[in-house]
Design brief:
Two copies of one chain form a homodimer. Chain A has about 350 residues and is of the alpha+beta class. Chain A is built from twelve helices and ten strands. In chain A, the strands form two sheets. In chain A, strands 2-3-4-5-1-8-10-9 form an eight-stranded antiparallel beta sheet. In chain A, a hairpin with a 5-residue loop joins strand 4 and strand 5. In chain A, helix 2 packs across helix 11 and helix 8 packs across helix 9. Chain A is globular. At the A-B interface, helix 8 and helix 12 of A face helix 8 and helix 12 of B.
Chain lengths: ~350, ~350
């Protein structure tokens, strides 16, 4: 267990992880949507060389290049489940590649929506440090690659919503309290006015699973990275506080306590569990651990399980394509083993 | 724990208990439905005296007389939950009484449907011994009381369905296999042709709970007690065999195993459990114990819980009238403590 997602961090009761993503493009190539095979290969080679030759300066990361064309579908989907690849990356057809740090906290997608999508993830609530890592890696690449940059607009990106900083700073939040109290829609609406959005865990358009929400900046133009991060941080602090308040209120009700203990009871005993049911139960257990109702299970364990019990991860672990019922069985076995 | 229902007996995987009930009336009084207060009191006194004066000959039973008029409603209902009183006994208005043996295996209701309803219960599948106890007690009472008896018809009872032997021999069966395989209706229909009936656990008209069924003789006229019991015994053996066959088949399916383990998981962890949910879950757990899937829980424990977790028993134990949610909470607490 030495992957970034196998731990919990600051404010881990509510904040699962912090993510900084930078979108960059090489000035001498058209955007990926207009790129031919030859150009795509050239972009891959340039970025790959720039990153791997920076390895000495980023020795702790020990990057490895992954030729995603050669990966089978299960492995690709398992990388999506770990948030190392975007769902679009898997479905699109153009030549792409992925560079991953050893602990999987840094991923660089090549030829996704932009030529370079640099992503850094950390456990818990840790925007500054996560940005610092992304920023220093960006600086190193900037020395070796010619990024498309406009003095007035900032970094040029395929989609105008990323124009400017090209940065998306996100926090993965566990909000069972706000969800259950029915205020999520109101919270989301208010966030939009503040230039932030709240989405499901696999990004834009995805449904919230297990009461997990991704809070991120919407605006990339006209604000510095520092301002954006401070803004996100301040608002996240308020949401965390609200969530905790609702939780303490919920904890006074025997129905909540019952709900939590039933969830751990089923997870520890079931022999078949679907992804959907798992996500609902693990959310209840996470709440139970955060409230101190469930002892002997750590947030680390839960974060780990939430990744490892995903469908493609199970298939990858079993080293074969599993049927639906086999997946449910493997998932239940894994959960019982871990809990 | 020294009550009869706190143990399991022969063929305890399927047969929870054996019951023999004899209906008798005193020849010099009208049937209870036509009885006035004075007559009812006289019947109570005569039967009470006959039983209590037999205590020396039945020393192991140590009977005690219970003036049911003086019992509060909760205590009365808890006696129904233990099958020591019939639901009718509680709802009717005429003067009644109850005589109970110390371990509660023998109960004598006075002025229920008949003047005397003598009932003996044993754990597991044990028709002969249970009948023997009932028969010897009947003989003792017969010496002291003048039972209404017709040489041609046999014992006279208020309801003609009891005429003759006045005996109802019953087995309480746990039949989750036959129930789930959807053959119960067919089985019941066939039993009728054989002079037997299959009913819910609180007798005629009651719904089957927790896959529990009461198998008993329907015919009391024209057959001796011995023939009736042998008939019931032979057919019960076949049903037990069928149930076991279906269970072994079910046990091959991961869905059954999952269902069983989820049930124990919820029972061991929930903080609120309704009677209805409890009965469903305990049935699954009973099946799991019988199949050897659940270790560390005995059939004795389950039999005990099935009585103790009933609503009035919980109120009686708490020594006050509990609200619905308090009952659910007390039930869950008791279950966690026992399991």
């Amino acid at each position: 267990m030495d992957k970034w997602y196998e731990k919990s961090g600051a404010d881990g009761d509510v904040v699962i992880s912090t993510r900084i993503r930078l979108a960059r493009n090489l000035s001498e190539f058209p955007f990926p949507c207009k790129l031919q095979k030859k150009g795509a290969d050239a972009v891959i080679n340039l970025v790959k060389e720039a990153v791997l030759s920076s390895n000495s300066q980023l020795s702790s990361n020990n990057f490895k290049y992954i030729d995603t064309q050669k990966l089978d579908k299960i492995t690709l989907i398992s990388l999506v489940e770990k948030h190392l690849l975007s769902p679009d990356f898997v479905s699109d057809k153009i030549e792409k590649s992925l560079i991953l740090s050893e602990n999987e906290s840094i991923s660089i997608m090549i030829n996704e929506e932009d030529h370079v999508r640099l992503q850094v993830m950390s456990q818990g609530f840790d925007l500054e440090k996560t940005f610092e890592i992304a920023d220093s890696l960006d600086s190193l690449l900037d020395e070796k690659l010619s990024f498309a940059f406009d003095d007035k607009l900032g970094y040029l990106t395929q989609c105008p919503t990323n124009l400017g900083t090209g940065m998306r700073a996100s926090l993965m939040l566990h909000l069972p309290g706000l969800k259950q109290s029915g205020v999520m829609e109101k919270v989301s609406a208010n966030l939009l006015k503040l230039g932030l959005t709240m989405r499901g865990i696999y990004g834009e358009g995805s449904e919230p699973q297990a009461d997990m929400y991704q809070l991120s900046n919407q605006v990339t133009l006209g604000l510095s990275e520092k301002t954006t991060i401070n803004n996100l941080k301040d608002i996240a602090k308020q949401i965390i506080l609200q969530e905790r308040t609702v939780r303490s209120e919920m904890a006074k009700h025997i129905e909540t306590i019952d709900f939590i203990h039933r969830a751990i009871g089923v997870l520890k005993n079931a022999r078949l569990i679907s992804t959907n049911e798992f996500m609902k139960l693990i959310s209840a257990v996470r709440l139970g651990v955060a409230l101190g109702e469930i002892k002997g299970v750590s947030l680390d364990t839960i974060n780990f399980l939430m990744i490892e019990a995903q469908p493609a991860m199970l298939s990858k672990f079993a080293n074969k394509d599993l049927t639906a019922i086999e997946k449910e069985q493997k998932r239940a076995d894994l959960i019982r083993e871990i809990l």
